[in-house]
Here is the input.
Amino acid sequence: MSTDVTSTDEWRALAAHAEQARALRLRAEFERDPKRPERLSAQAGDLFVDYSKNLVTDETIELLTALARRVGLADRIAAMFAGEHINTSEDRAVLHTALRLPRSAELVVDGQDVVADVHAVLDRMGDFAERVRSGDWRGHTGEKIRTVVNIGIGGSDLGPVMAYEALAPWRDAGIACRFISNIDPTDLSQTLADLDPASTLFVVASKTFSTLETLTNARQARAWLLSGLGDDPAAVAKHFVAVSTNAKLVGEFGIDTDNMFGFWDWVGGRYSFDSAVGLSLMLAIGRDAFGEMLAGFHVVDEHFRTTPIEQNVPALLGLLNVWYNNFLGAQTHAVLPYSQLLHRFPAYLQQLTMESNGKSVTRDGEPVTYQTGEVFWGEPGTNGQHAFYQLIHQGTKLIPADFIGFSEPNYELDEMHDAFMANFFAQTAALAFGRTAAEVEATGVGADVVPHKVMPGNHPTTSILAPKLTPATLGQLVALYEHVTFTEGTIWGIDSFDQWGVELGKEMAKQLAPLLAGEPGDTDPSTAALIARYRTQRGR
Ligand code: F6P
Here is the structure.
């Protein structure tokens, strides 16, 4: 059985230090030490990270890095990259980092030449993407493909959508993607309403190929396609491809396995959009831009794998999150991208972080005695400023926030971009330094209004600034958060790569479905009454 991390000297030292740290004032710290940003900043690839506006001193960082050493973070990183079975509850390797290894790399895991396999699939994806993008691959009636509809959910949806939106300026072949995820029939109905089946290609993405939502939507989509194309079953082969680890179920569904793009059980769903799960994205942006994105991932992977903890950006940010979560009592964490292109990034991060670290037993199955996974949330700036920032500025809760910004705009409206990014810098400064009562009084407002206008400041933020949002920087950003999540999970001693918590609800939905149709079945009184009301309202 592993040691409870809270009983280590390193944890106790942090707990004692947290008592003093509560008195820390960012204004005073910056006045005393203007060179603070030089020390409390680091770089990973193109991502410059200033963490000086956090509630930390040099001692905090020393204590946090000591904790990382105590739990063997460096060894855990090495174990992940080497393909050890660190997903213990499923007895699997965790090798999303292998998805972005260059062709020249070498990695054999469990007898599998991982690099050769990854590149064989990438090559097939690239060839297929070129055929579709060039118009060589045509629909059943000879039409060029104009719309790709990705059907998938969770990791088979959130990553592809997020990246498709983020890389909008790289969509260059006149192919638009749409995404169907929810089993709510609204999603499918609205998405297909104005599409022409003759020019629509479906990518059915499911690691297991057994997910109820995805298979239900895929069956409906097939029926829609066939009814639009004269009910000729031969049409399916030209309009349906699959992305999965499960060739048997793909075949049973009726998709030719020649039109299947595979991946492996060592790629977790939420870590998968850089595998074949990114096929719809590749169809929109092309194999070269997709390759640039993979190269970006790899830059941060190498940084994480080789950099000492003191300068290791994902490790430092993960440790800061542990600091707020476990020692200063924060419950949530805001992620605020100053890029409209990243408008789905917070939703993507929610699955990455919360499905990974929402655990309450250690890898040995012992109940944890401390808080684990943070609640991540956010919206792009400046929309968030006009919605929930008030609570961050003047509310009573501690909410550490990551600000993500880019120096160069993606569209040539330079002055507008300056005005936009001025908000990024202003918000982080206002959150850190606030406005005192004396400063408010000096503006001449009435004494009764002064307390309402005082800005306490001292709200922690981390600024992540990159030159420009590109496929490469997107890859770097995602790898950064993957490894932040890994670092947190390592400190907490949990398995960040399983997700058993979502299974029970899935099983129960299957059990309850017949009851909605009026068949007998057991359930609790509250659920039984709700189903009865539902049936009445459906006129059953
Ligand atoms: O229910 C959770 C989950 O298993 C996620 O982890 C996964 O990303 C999603 O469902 C979809 O799974 P699949 O790709 O197998 O359809």
